[in-house]
Amino acid sequence: MSNENSGKMNSLFVAIVFPLVLIISVCIYMFVLGAESNFQNGDPIHGHPVETNPGKLYATIYKGGFIVPILISVNLIVIIFAVERFITLARAKGKGRIDSFIVEVRKHLANDNVDQAVAVCDEQQGSVANVMRSGLERYKTVLYDATHDKETRLQAVKQELEEATSLELPMLSKNMVILSTCASISTLLGLIGTVLGMIRAFSALAATGTPDATALSTGISEALINTAFGIGGSTLAIIFFNYFSNRIDAITHGIDEAGFSVSKTLANRK
To answer: pLDDT tens digits, residue range 25-45?
Structure first.
């Protein structure tokens, strides 16, 4: 699949995921958390949560307000794109260990067996192998080109490696911005929901005219549900973002090392 088609597929994937996740989250909020069986007298609006779990927990989360489905959406988006990044980076890494692959290619290049090195790239697959293969194909083209001097041939191979690298790198970091954004906004959304919940709790208490510790504590616990969801989503997003960033750095280092190997082999030829 070309990079252009891959980009279109990714844009379509994102365009489908976001509204679909929001719809699913609203349905979970309305029909699972807000089920009548979770509330006393079957009244999700004015009724208190039932005394037994999981109905009590579901009803308490439901009372967190309209921010809850948004936070559920953020958490689902983090999980979905974490799975997407895991699959994509696993493919980009290739079938075997990157360092072992580079060592094997170097061995074949040292023996002037370029075709075997290309075959190893085809077997390995992934971003590092794609860059290495592009460099080797160009290497084969200019190796015995008597119309250009050694420096010109070396420059042509380096340019091919740079172009191949520029095509592979965007795929590695694609959608990482979604994880970083979720990490930033999840906690803020949770705090907004908590503040709104606290306002509702104190407003209801003021309307009764008499202090009610039970009602106040219930209102605060419902409001803090949003904070818990927000912090949980942010924590997940940060963990996944850092994990995938390390994997991307390892693959990028492999790409650089692969390019250096091809260039060095050509430079050392007499």
So the answer is: 999 999 999 898 888 888 887
> 3-state SS string over 14-81?
HHHHHHHHHHHHHHHHHHHHCCHHHEHHHCCCCCCECCCCCHHHHHHHHCCCCHHHHHHHHHHHHHHH
- 241, two tokens: 């973002």
Helix (H, G, I), strand (E, B) or coil at 270: coil
DSSP 243: H
Inter-CA distances, 127 with 39, 193, 215, Å: 54, 43, 58
Give the phi and the psi of residue 237 in degrees, each rounded to 5.
-65, -40
Q: pLDDT for 1-21, tens place per residue? A: 555 566 677 788 888 999 999
Domain boundaries, the chain: 1-270
Please name the amino acid found at residue 203.
S
Helix (H) or strand (E) holding 211: none
